[in-house]
Amino acid sequence: MHQALLAVSVSLAAAYYCTHRADENCACRKPKPALLHQAADDFNIDLSQSIFIGDSETDMQAGLAAGCQPIAFGACLCESRDSLPWRGSLPVARTAKELFDVAVKCLQDRGQDAVGVGAAQDPR
Ligand SMILES: [Zn+2]
After folding, report:
1. End-to-end alpha-carbon separation of the chain, Å?
2. Which residue ranges in the chain fall short of pLDDT 50?
3. How far is the CA of 58 from the centre of ligand 1 (A)?
4. Phi, psi of 51 (to 5 degrees)
């Protein structure tokens, strides 16, 4: 994955994942936020000033539990959001272009300058 991303000039600082089954009730499986807290500790990230992009209900729950601003990404999740308990309350993006715009707006709303998301947005 790192090599594939590097081929399009994207570097990944780290990847965190749970290796447990759902019935093992570990602390790191979403919707629990342990892996987000681990990344925050490892990279000195202020989760209250961060966005968390996901494509599942458990992603949204983990982001909220960690104090991030979750963003729902993906056509399937967007289309089904009316049946989900968080419908209407979280930003959604169907396409990568929409995701970029939504992410920039969310970071700006949190007082961030969107560095790292991209340089196409003029802060003024
Ligand atoms: Zn786990």
Report:
1. 35
2. 116-124
3. 13
4. -105, 155
Residue 66: exposure state from Cβ atoms within 10 A (0-12, 13-18, ≥19) = buried
Ion ligand 1 residues within 5 Å by Cβ: 18, 20, 26, 28-29
Residue 34 CA, ligand 1 centroid: distance in Å = 9
At 23 the pLDDT is 95
28 CA from centroid of ligand 1 (Å): 4
Domains of the chain listed by start with CATH number: 15-109 (3.40.50.1000)
The pLDDT value given to residue 119: 38
The two tokens of residue 71 are 């963003």
Cα-trace Rg, the chain: 15
Tell me: the pLDDT tens digits for 58-78? 999 999 999 999 999 987 665
**Pair of tokens at residue 53:** 């992009």
Reference 27, options 57, 65, 69, 68; nearest CA is 65
